[in-house]
Design brief:
By secondary structure, the protein is α+β, with helices and mostly antiparallel strands. It contains 13 helices and eight strands. The strands form two sheets. A five-stranded antiparallel sheet has the order 4-3-2-1-5. It has a three-stranded antiparallel sheet with strand order 6-8-7. α11 crosses α12.
Length: 398
């Protein structure tokens, strides 16, 4: 009875000593590391995992050295095995915490709340994807090591290795979609095709990349909806990335107006408008006539802004202002449909009628010059010679 009580006391004492040592070290490191971001992150995020790992390890050593009287007993083997499993699990937790601390420290050096944050967003994307991958690897390794502590698992290890090829093929076929998404996520982390906070147009929706994981991507749409897509979507289908190289973008506003529109006056009005607003970044301000069919003229205003949100507001402002300008200052240039009514002979009131002249009737062998492409005139004869050839008889050309 005294032996069992001594084991319990030794375990409790070891746990108390471990907690006390970790607490003292925590206070000392916190005081020393007030100016060190790494030490601050270590004391904030890894303190609990260090406590658990140190306590379980201390109890495991205490039980092992205080149960010499029960060597060979079943309960001692089971207890030590459970403590070993606890040490492995707590060590995995500690390693994952240390990796998170290192990644957070690296992320703190790159700010994303600044205008030119493309490099910071790329680094943040890579670190976030690596964090998820490293934690998954640590968990898998910890579970594997814990399973290897069971003699039955070690006994079937050879058989598992023998059939690993077949199992791998079956697993790859069963998880083809999942593995495709995982590899696509890893590709995102290092290809720089998509980053966190990138502005994209996907599935006809305009938004920004809010979250990137190994299996899916969350796009925050402009109206606060969320579009969730598998990562493989961005490697198999085209999409627009408005911030691939820089945040500044171009946008258009198009107008259908009458042919009476004074284009130069409209161009000058556009220039006055963009120069009076902070939404314009000062790079591009162009107004051009891009089409003139169907009884109307299509005018396109091309403007630039520092980011996608400012560009959207600037395009709306250009439309509103130029529509009001045309209505108030150039009403004759508003879109209109013209209808002309004539008499039965299609004679119009404004039409100038040419005096009648005697019409010369053509003989059966004569052909009017304006109805012939090859011949009938000097130019037509030259064209005929080019396509037929001067040495051929005249009859062969007819």
């Amino acid at each position: 009875m005294q032996s069992y009580l001594g084991t319990i006391v030794a375990a409790l004492a070891a746990a108390a000593i471990a907690l006390f040592a970790v607490g003292v070290a925590h206070r000392v490191i916190r005081r020393i590391g007030r100016r060190s971001l790494l030490l601050t992150e270590l004391t904030d995020h890894a303190h609990r995992s260090i406590q658990v790992a140190a306590t379980v390890l201390a109890v495991q050593f205490a039980v092992r050295f205080s149960t010499g009287y029960a060597v060979g007993e079943q309960w001692r083997q089971v207890l030590l095995h459970l403590l070993v499993l606890g040490v492995i699990a707590s060590a995995a937790w500690l390693v994952a915490s240390l990796l998170v601390v290192a990644e957070d420290t690296a992320l703190a050096r790159f700010r994303v709340d600044v205008p030119d944050n493309r490099h910071a967003r790329r680094v943040r994307t890579q670190v976030v994807m690596l964090r998820r991958l490293t934690i998954a690897v640590v968990v898998v390794l910890a579970v594997g090591v814990m399973l290897m502590t069971f003699p039955a698992v070690r006994g079937i290890g050879a058989g598992v290795l023998t059939s690993a090829g077949v199992v791998g093929v079956v697993a790859a076929l069963a998880a083809q979609s999942l593995l495709g998404n995982v590899f696509a996520g890893l590709q995102f982390a290092f290809s720089d095709a998509v980053r966190l906070d990138d502005v994209v147009v996907v599935e006809g929706e305009w938004g920004r990349i809010e979250e990137l994981t190994l299996s899916y991507v969350v796009v925050q749409i402009w109206d606060d909806r969320r579009l969730i897509l598998p990562t493989s979507y961005f490697t198999t289908k085209p999409f627009q990335n408005w911030t691939r190289t820089e945040a500044a973008v171009l946008g258009t506003a198009e107008f259908d107006v009458d042919w009476a529109i004074p284009v130069q006056s409209m161009r000058e009005e556009l220039r006055r408008l963009v120069e009076s607003t902070e939404l314009w970044d000062g790079r591009v301000c162009v107004l051009q006539v891009t089409d003139a069919t169907g009884g109307m003229v299509k005018v396109r205003a091309l403007v630039s802004a520092a980011d996608a949100g400012s560009l959207f507001d600037l395009r709306c402002l250009v439309r509103e202002h130029l529509v009001a300008w045309i209505r108030d200052h150039r009403p004759t240039a508003m879109p209109r449909l013209r209808t002309e009514v004539g008499d039965a002979a299609s004679n119009l009131a404004w039409q100038w009628v040419r005096p009648r002249q005697p019409v010369r009737r053509l003989t059966d062998t004569e052909v009017p010059d304006d109805a012939r492409v090859f011949g009938g005139s000097d130019d037509g004869d030259a064209r005929s010679e080019a396509f037929v050839g001067p040495d051929e008889p005249a009859d062969s050309r007819r």
